Amino acid sequence: MTSEITLFVNPTAGRGRGARAARPAASAFRDAGFSVRTVLGDDPRDALDRARAAVEEGTGALIAVGGDGMANLALQAVVGTGTPFGLVAAGTGNDFARALGMPLREPAAAGRMIADALKCGRVRDIDLGRVGDRWFGAVLASGFDSRVNDRGNRMRLPLGRLKYDVAMVAELAAFRPLPYRITLDGGEVREVEATLVAVGNGPSYGGGMRICPGADLTDGLFDITVVGECSRATLLRVFPRVYRGTHVGHPAITVLRAASVELAAEEVTGYADGEPVGPLPLTARCVPGALRVVGP
């Protein structure tokens, strides 16, 4: 393996934490004997092109520094290439980093962990989700949670996670369950009234909400959490349990497992790793061993 690695940095992640995190992470890699190349971009398209170029030129690893959005962008550059992927969590949610077992907002510790793993050859292959030509590592969200994302993305204030808390309260006041058509593995069809449907390659989204607590990055299957028709009072009562993953015991919630799933509902946008992938209907496929990761 070449001793040069590439840091793929989002300087604006977590209101500037990405840029601050890159420095101690780079120092940790250099202290371990690696040469470090840093890739930035003028915009996401330019950044992705630069990351792909680094992979094509034979970098020893592509290390994303930022949050879930930056990790998701890095996946598009490295998936299927065999180039190891690492993640230094420096965003707001950091759910893919949680799924990988990486330290959160400890860039020096993450850098040391990845450097040690690279030197020891400690890599593993994990599954990814794919929607069309887009890949995701954690969760594909739709329904109430995606509408909260829609509203939050339109808001200028407040900043950070508080914006999405405000958006959730606003959406909750007007939200009604939606008719969904869910097709599993191209065969079984379920038509349900659902508050939300989350397709989990990993267990959490939204900064630690374990919406799909049983999701396993290496089993070749999605865990699909369907929150059925329920009142606002029930939703508010069950919501705190999402952080522990105990919500799946509620009678309004069903967990399905499949290697592929098609979600169809009107006027709903799908969000993968917090990034919009387009309106439903969408088909997600779990691709076993699509990504080589380095870390714990």
The count of DSSP E runs of length 2 or more, i.e. the number of strands, is 15
Determine the number of helices (DSSP H or I, runs of at least 4 residues). 8
What do we call the CATH topology of the largest domain?
Answer: Tumour Suppressor Smad4
The share of residues in helices is 25-40%
Proportion of strand residues? 25-35%
CATH C-level class of the largest domain? Mainly Beta
Distance between the termini: 19 Å
* Anisotropy-based shape: globular
Helix and strand string, N-terminal first?
A: EHEHEHEHHEEEHHEEEHEEEEE
Supply the number of structural domains: 2
The CATH architecture of the largest domain can be named as: Sandwich
Radius of gyration: 19 Å
Write the layout of secondary structure elements.
Elements (H helix, E strand, L loop, with lengths): L3 E6 L7 H15 L3 E5 L4 H13 L5 E5 L1 H11 L6 E5 L5 H6 L6 H14 L2 E9 L2 E3 L2 E5 H11 L6 H14 L3 E7 L3 E13 L21 E7 L3 H7 L14 E6 L1 E5 L4 E4 L2 E5 L2 E13 L2
Parallel strand pairs: 1-2, 1-3, 3-4
Antiparallel strand pairs: 5-6, 5-15, 7-9, 7-13, 8-9, 8-12, 9-10, 10-11, 12-15, 13-14
Helix pairs in contact: 1-5, 2-3, 6-7
EC number: 2.7.1.107
Protein name: Diacylglycerol kinase
InterPro entries: ATP-NAD_kinase_N, Diacylglycerol/lipid_kinase, Diacylglycerol_kinase_cat_dom, Lipid_Phosphate_FormReg, NAD/diacylglycerol_kinase_sf, YegS/DAGK_C
